């Protein structure tokens, strides 16, 4: 039987300090089978590895988020590289560009995005890309580094349908989460209905971006059925089909089959 594949969560976040175990104990009953926990800053690298070793349903991605990239050095990056051969690591991420917060300096963000794209190529792992208000530079750097040979997902996708088709052409998956349930998310609804189901994966970005009816509250993977249902309605298919197909997609994305 197929189960929901959660492709992007942050269970190392302090928002889960008190009741992480309780959430994990409920996953199976809510139909959630596997979770990829995503690192963001330097402190999260070992926490994510540790969680992925402790729970058989959990994998991890290791990498540094653009907004947290200021303290990176070549030496620190080499330390992350050494951990990528661990069998519980399924991707490099999250990496990318964030011009919404716009710190650190764009030059620094670009430098570490490029360095981590090359690190992923070298380690033969896909990438989890975070890109906010930086569509053009993200696409440019992905092209410069032949990202179609690396593969991965554009997570929490926030751009147009037209650009989604460009990412898909490069072999990338589009990560869709709670935002698709928001009334005003016209663009993302177009994407969720407009690209092939083959290219969509489900995610929450927990603890952020809870779907309706929990918008504004702390998010967890337990809310993924709302995301699957919203995509199903937009496409005029059943939630079961969305769940089954996106599970297969996530297995392809993270090379688990
Ligand atoms: Ni994230």
Keywords:
binds nickel (II) ion, TIM Barrel, single chain, alpha/beta
Specify the CATH homologous superfamily. Metal-dependent hydrolases
**What's the average pLDDT?**
98
How many β-strand stretches?
Answer: 8
- For the record, the CATH class is Alpha Beta
Gyration radius over CA: 17 Å
Residue share in β-strands: 15-25%
How would you write the strand order of the largest sheet?
1-2-3-4-5-6-7-8
State the shape: globular
Low-confidence stretches: none
Share in helix: 40-55%
The major β-sheet equals: 8 strands, parallel
Q: Could you give the distance between the termini?
A: 16 Å
Bound molecules: nickel (II) ion
Explain this structure to me?
With 257 residues, this protein is of the alpha/beta class. It has a single domain (4-253), classed as TIM Barrel (Alpha-Beta Barrel). 40% of the residues lie in helices and 18% in strands. The chain contains nine helices and eight strands. It has an eight-stranded parallel beta sheet. Strand 7 (172-176), helix 7 and strand 8 form a beta-alpha-beta unit. Helix 8 (224-235) packs across helix 9. The chain is globular. Nickel (II) ion binds next to loops.
List the helices and strands and how they pair.
Blueprint: E1 4-9, H1 20-26, E2 32-38, H2 42-54, E3 58-61, H3 74-83, E4 89-98, H4 106-123, E5 127-132, H5 135-144, E6 152-155, H6 161-169, E7 172-176, H7 186-194, E8 200-202, H8 224-235, H9 239-253
Parallel strand pairs: 1-2, 2-3, 3-4, 4-5, 5-6, 6-7, 7-8
Helix pairs in contact: 8-9
Bound molecules: nickel (II) ion.
The site of nickel (II) ion has 5 residues, from loops.
